[in-house]
Amino acid sequence: MVKTVLYNHTNSYDTLNELTDTTKCIWICFHGLGYLSKYFKKYFINFPKDDHYFIIPQAPSKYYQGSDFKHVGASWLTRENTMQEMDNVLNYLDKVITQENIKGDPRIVLMGYSQGVSIATRFMSQYFYNVKALIIQSGSLPQELNENDGQHFETFCDRIIHISGTKDEYVNDKVIEREKERIDTLFGTKCEKHRPDIKHVVHVELLQTIAKSLT
C-alpha cells in the first residue's frame, strides 16, 4: 500500500540584479537537468543590469553526479509520480512569485532550458496572467499539454520563442518530428523559431539579442 503525506518543505532560489520600477523585464529562468540555480544564473550576468531582473528557481531534487561524489546537480521531475511532483513544484513557484510580489506583473519573461522547458510550459499552462514572453530552448514539450493549453499560451503569452540547436547531440530525426508536431499544436504560427548551429548549450548571445528586443 502506498500512502501520501502533506508536509512543509523549504527550498531556495537565486536572484540577479535589482527589481525596481524601471526594470523592463523580470526573468524567471528554469535550469536544466544537473544544474544548480547558483551556477545557472551565471549565464545572465552580462545582461543590462538596469533593464533585467532575474529569478532562478532551484529544482528540488539534488543528487551527486559521477562516481567521485564531488559535484551536486538537481532534477525537477522524473517519470515517477510526475504530476504529483509537478504540483509540488507549482506550489513552490507560487510562493516564489508571491514573495517577490510579481504575480500578474506584465514584465515577466519565462525562460526554460533543457529539462526546464517542461517546467516553464507547465507553469505557464496554469498561470492566468499575461507574460511578456515564453522562451524555451533545447527541451521537450510535455506530452499532456493539448490544444486547449495552446489556446491558453496564445492568449496569455505576448511572444513565444523556441530555440533548438541544429547540432544538439540529444536530438535525432524522430525527436525533431515529434517536437515539430508539438510546437505546431501548442503554438501554431505565433511561435518564433530559431535554429542556431549549436550543441546542447545555453545560447547566451541569442538570448541577449532577444532580451534587447523585449526592452
TrEMBL record:
Gene3D superfamilies on file: alpha/beta hydrolase (3.40.50.1820)
Database matches in SUPFAM superfamilies: alpha/beta-Hydrolases
Organism: Nonlabens tegetincola
Gene Ontology molecular function, alphabetical: hydrolase activity
Family annotation (Pfam families): Abhydrolase_2
Protein name, UniProt field: Phospholipase/carboxylesterase/thioesterase domain-containing protein
Phospholipase/carboxylesterase/thioesterase domain boundaries: 27-214
